[in-house]
Structures are given as structure tokens and as C-alpha cells.
Design brief:
Two copies of one chain form a homodimer. By secondary structure, the first copy, chain A, is mainly alpha-helical. Chain A has a domain of 113 residues: Winged helix-like DNA-binding domain superfamily/Winged helix DNA-binding domain (Arc Repressor Mutant, subunit A). Helices cover 54% and strands 5% of the residues of chain A. Chain A has a two-stranded antiparallel sheet with strand order 1-2. In chain A, a hairpin with a 5-residue loop joins strand 1 and strand 2. Chains A and B meet through helix 1, helix 6, helix 7 and helix 8 of A and helix 1, helix 6, helix 7 and helix 8 of B. The structure holds a DNA duplex.
Chain lengths: 164, 164
DNA sequence: GTCTCGTTACTCGGATATCTGGTGTCCGAGTTTCGAAGG
DNA sequence: CCTTCGAAACTCGGACACCAGATATCCGAGTAACGAGAC
């Protein structure tokens, strides 16, 4: 049940993009963390479909943040990558058990499903309460050099790394 | 990232067993919800390894609750089936980014990992706060006939169903 | 009638196939850029 | 010098292989129950 690693890639990439103002191509973003470019591109496409990123084709194109970092919650990113389905899936096996089942939706009435849904909502509430901007603020407080370092590294990777 | 359906099977099976006092074999428990017997057995083995169930071999054997229903939380069941790993996995891709990484454990220091861990804990706290006994009480209030129905159905399935 | 013992049947438990979804890769469609040619 | 046009290079986007984990199954090890036989 572990989460796709694409979530980690997406979160850090969004943070990096929040320090930049120009579009950055997939290859550059992938080289930043030595990730497989084509697969990262797949994840970024999902973010773009969710409106978190905006993509521009052609030379000098790439991805940039689709809206302010304050308006991007961790839940938005998780949902974009993993989908909006609940963690617990209720296949309504009670249908096969004893008792009457006249059109009952056990996803709503089953006590287990309700409890699991409650835990699910608690998880989502936590994720919705933290934005990429919040995390950015924490990072900048702990490591003030991060924005400049990131911008420098991106610029270096853009024009072809000399150390290769 | 959806949860294994074995969790749903395990929860309902634990509830049913809480209404019984004698061991019930896998085949009977599987027939109750028309589940694949061998695969359900695999899940029950996991519960037994976690101490939630106790298994007794031989004739008149089977599975019974390993401890009181009040002492079995939903988190216990989920952990037994899905494992104790966090929902969010941090592969520490920051190691490949700019800056110094002298033996830093990003699972602890990365702001994203911290936030995700917080949401994870909120989820687990909710699950740990509900026991199988709590759910049993809700079910008995809404459907007082459930315990008797379950016992009757189990007894019927035990000695070979006549309706087959 | 009671005890002993062997057989039997039943149960769990782990080792073994199959299949869906996550992982990884590739090539084509579209667009911007740049430069050259013409006015 | 300015405008126009065309070719080229770059980027995203979705379609195509590959692999791990979940799903599903089977058979053997071990054990309790039961019945027959002896005392």
C-alpha cells in the first residue's frame, strides 16, 4: 500500500519551481535529482492535468507553477499523482453475508467503512492544511541558501553541465 | 495506492469471530462471504502472526480471536495485513541535489517527509482509536439480530450447506 | 466398563503460479525560435 | 534597415515494454478426534 515515489518527485519539483519564474524543461528537472527524465515527465503531465503546473512547448519551454505556491496543498499533489480514491476500498462483501440487502450501499452503511473513511478524512485534512509555500518557508528558515543554490544549479544544468 | 482487499476481509472476519467462542476453520469463514478459501487463509495467517488470532490445527480446529475485541484496534488489523511501513516513502532524493549531505537522514530532516509523517500519524491515531468492539457495539445497536444471524449461518455452513 | 493405541480425517502453513498496476522508455505532434532572403 | 518566410530544433504528450507486488491456488506437515481391541 505504499505511495508511488512519483509523489516525492512531484513535491520537490514543485518546491524548486516555486523559486523560479521561467519554464524549466523536464530534462533539467530530472537531472537535478538524477531521475529518469521520461518517467518524471509522466508525473509532471499528471500535475499539469490537475492545473498545478502549466506546460509550454517549443524552445525555451517546459513546466512552471500553474498557480501561487500558497494555493497548492500537499493534498493537491498527492491527489494529482495517486488519484482521488479512498485508501480503504469497500468491496461490500456484506452483500454475500446473511440478512437482507435490498439496494443497500455498504460503502455508506457499513460501520467499518465509516470508521476507515473517518481516518481517511483525518489524513486528507492534514495534507490539505499544508501548502507548498508553508514547506518553502520552513526550508528557507533552516537553509537560507537553498533558493540561490537551486537557481544556480538549474542554470548550470540548463546550458549543459561542464562537469560531465 | 489502494489498500489490499484482505483488510476488509480481515475486519469482517474478526467481527464475526468476536460473536463466537469456538474455533472456526478457514473454509467456513470463506463460505460466509463467498471468498476464495485459500487466499483468505493467507490473510488469517498474517493476523495469527500478529497475535490477533489464534490458530488450532486438527479436527474441530480453526481460528479464534487471540485476545478481547476491545484490545484489537483497526490499526492492529491494518498493520497486520499491510505492514507497518509509512504511507509516504521518502527515497531521500535530496541526496542527489545541491548542498552538503554529510550523513544527513532526510527521512527526519526533509520538511516534506515531516509533513507527510504528520498526516500519517493522524491517520494512524484515528485507526488506533477504534476497536473491533466499538464497531461491534455500533452494529449491534443498528442490527440487533446480527449476532444470532451470524452464529446461525456459521453453524449451518459448518456441517455442510444443504442448499447446494 | 475402562484404558491404550493406531488409524483416520481434518486443519493450518508455507511454497508455488497468475495477473494487475506501478515503473521505465520511446517516438511523433506541435510550437517557438532563429536566420536568411527579399523588398 | 525592416519585413517575411521557411526550416530547424526543442518541448510536451501519449502509446508501448518491463517488473514488482497483490491475487489466487495447491499440496504437505502436524494434530486432535475417534473407534477398535485388550485388559
Amino acid at each position: 500500500m505504499r505511495m508511488s515515489q512519483g509523489v516525492e518527485w512531484a513535491l520537490h519539483t514543485c518546491l524548486n519551481l516555486s523559486w523560479l519564474d521561467t519554464p524549466v524543461p523536464t530534462d533539467t528537472l530530472a537531472a537535478f535529482y538524477e531521475l529518469p527524465p521520461a518517467y518524471l515527465n509522466k508525473q509532471l503531465q499528471a500535475l499539469a492535468r490537475a492545473g498545478i503546473l502549466t506546460s509550454t512547448p517549443g524552445p525555451r519551454g517546459g513546466f512552471r507553477l500553474g498557480r501561487a505556491a500558497e494555493a497548492i496543498s500537499l493534498l493537491d499533489v498527492v491527489t494529482a499523482i495517486e488519484g482521488a480514491e479512498d485508501l480503504f476500498r469497500c468491496d461490500q462483501i456484506l452483500d454475500k453475508g446473511p440478512g437482507q440487502h435490498a439496494g443497500v450501499d455498504y460503502r455508506q452503511s457499513c460501520a467499518f467503512a465509516q470508521a476507515m473513511r473517518g481516518a481517511d478524512l483525518a489524513w486528507r485534512r492534514e495534507l490539505a492544511g499544508r501548502s507548498v509555500a508553508d514547506v518553502r518557508a520552513e526550508v528557507e528558515r533552516a537553509h537560507p541558501e537553498s533558493p540561490a543554490d537551486t537557481r544556480a544549479r538549474i542554470a548550470e544544468l540548463r546550458k549543459g553541465p561542464a562537469s560531465r
